[in-house]
Specification:
By secondary structure, the chain is mainly α. Helices cover about 85% and strands about 0% of the residues. The longest helix has about 40 residues. It is flat, with a radius of gyration of 23 Å.
Length: about 150
């Protein structure tokens, strides 16, 4: 009788693992289907770039990648600072408000740098490419979550 219970338990455990794995893979696939296209995808897949434009845009993108990494690190640090301030406080303390301000400043700096990057890339495009680029950027910014 114990062998039957072990078999049942093993079957249930394997079914649970298979179910969880399938759900995880399915959720990941669904999220990728609904992602907003990135700048790189818009520029390199939706525009007919010349070789010179491609090189210039790659240089712009690699330069911004370093800047973005620094800005994103500041956002993560501000988030940790906010989490620590909330954990240490009894409510809306001056430390929490300062951490919120730091987070807003970090997010604002990242957003401003990203917008400047968009315009730097746009300057490399022809007027027709810029129209497509603008339309794609506007669509990405206004896309509603599904």
């Amino acid at each position: 009788m114990t062998t039957n219970w072990k078999s049942i338990a093993l079957t249930v455990a394997l079914a649970a693992l298979a179910s969880a794995g399938g759900a995880w893979l399915g959720a990941g696939w669904m999220m990728r289907q609904h992602e907003t296209p990135g700048l790189h995808e818009i520029v390199h897949r939706k525009l007919d770039l010349t070789a010179d434009q491609d090189v210039r845009l790659d240089q712009i993108e690699s330069g911004f990648a370093e800047r973005r990494e620094t800005l994103e690190a500041d956002v993560r640090a501000a988030n940790r600072e906010l989490a620590n301030a909330i954990a240490a406080s009894q409510g809306d303390s001056p430390e929490v408000r300062a951490a919120v301000d730091h987070f807003h400043d970090a997010m604002g700096a990242l957003q401003k740098a990203t917008i400047a990057h968009v315009f730097e890339m746009r300057a490399v495009l022809t007027p027709e490419q810029a129209r497509v680029f603008d339309k794609e950027i506007a669509g990405a910014l206004t896309q509603e979550p599904r």
